[in-house]
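Q: Two folds, back to back.
A: First:
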Amino acid sequence: MQAIKTTGLTRLYRNGRGIRNVNLEVRQGEVFGFLGPNGAGKTTLIRTLLGFMHPQSGQAEMLGLDAVARSREVRQKVGYLPSDPALYDFLTGQQNIDFALAVRGIKNKNRVKALADRLEVDLKRRLKSLSRGNKQKVAIVTALAHDPELIILDEPTSGLDPLVQEIFGQLIREERARGKTIFMSSHVLSEVETLCDRVGVIRDGEIVTVDQVENLKKQRVKYVTAEFREAAPDLSEVQGVRNVAVEGRKVRFTFHGGIDPLIAELAKRSLVDLTLADPPLEEVFRAFYEGGGGGR
């Protein structure tokens, strides 16, 4: 059984934006990154999966349950952190969490203190007195407090400082180790690279690719630095070589294509040293973002 499965899922707004014909499968027990620029359709898909919005066509299943017909059961099994958490500022963090658990009919609060201690957040203070980062911590605790089977996170590290982001990453890895499924929407590509097993990219409301993070990086471009025994040769005519910058005996460039022909070509030219590096994910996904548009 897939944790999330959609077939032809479509939900469009009057201006034509939204999501269209989304076919997506998220495996149980994986951390799945959902990437796209602002306005690409990430939040629309999440809201449709959770039954907050009804699809105009297509189907969605969450943990084997129909996301529309059995949306109430779905939400019982899901922990959801929205991009803009709707917490009550006049209540304390503990009261916000207690209310969320009461709505679900859950009396066991064992996880609350453990999570709050890990994130170092004071649940006795009213939300209105907390910083944005501490409010986000309370929202994270709220999403995880009932020990959900499926965790859906929409921009989860917004407002968190780097140290807390690392603690959050540890929590996500622990949840995966416990067999939980995490679906994480983000535009912070570095955290997706660190945490996720697979990633889906959405643009203009449509899924444009789903793959392992490492595979996507390898398909794109390599950053290359080559050092030669003598002055660096002109490599601008070599197939796949772009953005050449020569510095004495060194030459730096980006390379597209299979690496074997490049190695063979460089070996003809008194090569002394060679360094190849994967690009950051920002560079990998840049091509998917070109053209803009879409609907959040």
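A: Second:
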Amino acid sequence: MSGSLTALRRELEGLAAVVVAYSGGVDSALLAHQAAAVLGPRAHAVTAVSASLAPEELDGCRRSAEAWGLRWSTVTTDELERAEYRANGPDRCWHCKSALMDRLAPLAAQESATVVLGVNLDDLGDHRPGQQAAAERGAAFPLVAAGFTKADVRRAAADLGLDVWDKPAAACLASRLPYGTPVTFGTLARVARAESALRRLGFSVLRVRHYGDVARVELGTDELAAAVEHRQEVVDGVKAAGYRYVTLDLEGFRSGNLNAGLTGG
């Protein structure tokens, strides 16, 4: 049975007050929008700001919060100060979500609220230690409880007229680094600059995977021909971000493909 807005609203009503971890993706956007509709000022959307958040994502959160009348604020997280996170092992996301919960849990306690995350049923099958970290700290996943898949989320967002309904997935910038590659401010900034350059060229579904001096560019398969056609602009934009070599992955964009070795994919 597909998730429904009625079921989601029921879940939110049952929580009474929430702090929504609002990253700007379609999942957290739908959750924040509906939390505000159901709970009014008892719904607080909070965006975590750090070097792992692309600047465009923060701008998008701000615009949507203003457009939808969300009660919205930001917090600064310190995951890059944690050696375990910088080491970039398979449990990196656990340390990241722990840093997030360190900021959101006290805020939620002040407001007698529950921290909620935009996790959907499809997310449960991938390697997501961050979900475990959040759940261990008392976070709830209303979209899961309401039976939402990713397709359900996008359909509901479209039905509500939310302009993010077809927004491509945008995981944190650290997900561009293969496990074992240290996470640093400089590396994240380089990835962010390269991806921003590609967006300015009109590409929408993209990742720049970081391999030292080499950038492996993943694009939506329907955009590969455009990348070849505008090869020099792509190369110039990515090299300007600090890479020496630019490669185009002919398999195209695959969400979470750096987890393949962990999940057997």
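Q: And?
A: The first strand starts at residue 18 and ends at 21.
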